Amino acid sequence: MVSLVVRDYDEALAFYVGKLGFTLVEDSFVPEQNKRWVVLEPPGAAGGAKLLLARGANPEQESRIGNQTGGRVFLFLYTDDFWRDFKDYKAQGVEFVREPSEAPYGTVAVFKDLYGTLWDLVQLKG
């Protein structure tokens, strides 16, 4: 599981579930910490990697929203049908900052999430 700092749980859910097709695995309130435990699973990743949405709780954490890696690609979303997902994400209004290209390992394009975090959409050759 990878933790991703977000501004707001519900707006992040609207993007990841509503636009990217992630599955909500868990959304539980943790009263002693006044936070939610929100776990998502990428499409096709049953039993694989998961994403924990972590709301920024102070100015230091909030300053990292959308820029957890200093402007580099942070996460990689693998697909079994690049063009299907690319076209679907574009139709959903997802912003691609690097158009599709062929690399030695497969087809790749870079998109931003709702906060500006960079993701690679990748279909491996094989």
Can you give a write-up of this model?
With 126 residues, the chain is an alpha/beta fold. Helix content is 17%, strand content 40%. The chain has helices spanning 9-16, 59-62, 82-91; strands spanning 2-6, 23-30, 35-41, 51-55, 75-78, 96-103, 106-112, 118-124. Strands 1-4-3-2 form a 4-stranded mixed sheet, with helices on one face. The protein has a 4-stranded mixed sheet with strand order 5-8-7-6, covered by helices on one side. A hairpin with a 5-residue loop joins strand 7 (106-112) and strand 8 (118-124). The longest helix has 10 residues, at 82-91. The two termini are 26 Å apart.
Concise account of the structure shown:
The chain has 126 residues and is α/β, with parallel strands linked by helices.
* C-alpha end-to-end distance: 26 Å
Q: How is the biggest beta sheet arranged?
A: 4 strands, mixed
Mean pLDDT across the residues is 95
Strand order of the largest sheet: 1-4-3-2
How big is the Rg?
15 Å
Shape: globular
Keywords:
four-stranded mixed β-sheet, single chain, 3 helices, 126 residues, globular, alpha/beta
Write the layout of secondary structure elements.
Layout: E1 2-6, H1 9-16, E2 23-30, E3 35-41, E4 51-55, H2 59-62, E5 75-78, H3 82-91, E6 96-103, E7 106-112, E8 118-124
Parallel strand pairs: 1-4, 5-8
Antiparallel strand pairs: 2-3, 3-4, 6-7, 7-8
